[in-house]
Amino acid sequence: MITDPPALTIRREIPRPDPGVLAALAGAPTGFVVDAMGGRGGLDPRIKPLVPMTGPLLGVAMTCDCGPADNLALFGALAAARPGDVLVAATDGFSGAAVTGDLLLGMARNRGLAGLVTDGLIRDLAGVLALGLPVFAAGVTPNSPARVGPGTVGLPVVLGGVAVAAGDIVIGDADGVVVLPLARAAEVVAALPAIRAAEATLDAAVRAGLGIPDFVAAVLASDRVTEVR
What we know:
30% helix; 14 strands; 9-stranded mixed sheet; alpha/beta; elongated; 3-stranded parallel sheet
């Protein structure tokens, strides 16, 4: 016989990036961060900002696995999180009920948290918009969750097709959400200046009238291309 799990399993002490790493990532578009990670790291494209963005979301992931139609773990994550953290709530992509609404998110704002990312849905959109707290979710429904568990806080989750560990870095903007694993943070920070410079150079060339970049023209003129009629 399977015994009932605890209502919540909580890991409060999580590894955290050096503040200098977060400072170096401030303002970086999600696309730049993805390029620095080899082209991957973005969550499922259905997870989009539901609140107008005034700037990129940036913070440390405080993960929770809520499961479907429940948000006790999200309350646990709220209690365990530090100011500046991002609540990352996995629901197995459940679309039958919201994982949270404006009241819990109001508490998150009161505690100084940076925002919420979930593969589930939210409710009370008018109230959420009034809060101004960044929220990335798969959609909106009026259906409400229970608060009974089981769930986990501070343990690894899979959300939007990406594995997320507590302490990873979450970056979000109008394009979506990218999760930067803590173990790769220094590597990405080191790569960003070159990516910024390359993007700026190409952007300036496009504004000046560039039609086809040299690296593409070289491929088109090479024996890597076969012409057919």
